[in-house]
Design goal:
Blueprint (H helix, E strand, L loop, with lengths): L2 H31 L6 H22 L12 H29 L5 H28 L14 H7 L5
């Protein structure tokens, strides 16, 4: 498979998992806010955690299941994944903040375009990059050391450098 095609397939899997994570986030938020009567900030914090858990599980079992992982322990990898998702969320909030407080665009349409349009695209780009390079990065083999290099030759001869 060509590199662009493989990247496209990886992104498609990432996006499919993202749809389920989005539904878990929104669904749990609406349930916590509505029938449970929870404060909006607490409800959003819990729904964010639910969405991150679904996204992590989906990515670990889906598009990134066959990759060797740079971060090897499950909880540490989940923590890095949560931080990557928080960074993506911060990008979305940043787009909304710039629209409202810098550009002075305060209509609902402007909020939707900046937060759920531009912010979602940029935040997804941050999440995709972070997920594939920081969380589920492919392990790279060390570069071979040639015999002609002084450091390698000294070590091969038993010298201490």
């Amino acid at each position: 498979m060509s590199k662009p095609r493989a990247l496209g397939a990886e992104f498609a899997g990432f996006a499919a998992v993202g749809v389920f994570a989005f539904l878990a986030d929104v669904g749990s938020f609406l349930w916590l806010r509505g029938p449970m009567g929870m404060d909006p900030m607490y409800a959003k914090a819990l729904s964010f955690i639910a969405g991150v858990a679904v996204a992590y599980t989906g990515n670990a079992l889906g598009p990134y299941r066959v990759r060797a992982r740079r971060v090897t322990t499950g909880w540490r990898r989940f923590g890095v994944f949560a931080l990557v998702n928080a960074a993506g969320g911060a990008v979305q909030l940043g787009c909304l903040g710039v629209s409202r407080h810098v550009l002075g665009l305060t209509s609902t349409l402007a909020d939707v375009i900046s937060g759920a349009g531009i912010g979602l695209v940029l935040g997804t780009a941050v999440r995709f990059w972070g997920t594939r390079t920081l969380v589920f990065a492919q392990e790279t083999a060390p570069a071979p050391v040639g015999r002609g290099q002084p450091q390698a030759q000294a070590q091969a001869d038993g010298e201490v450098t």
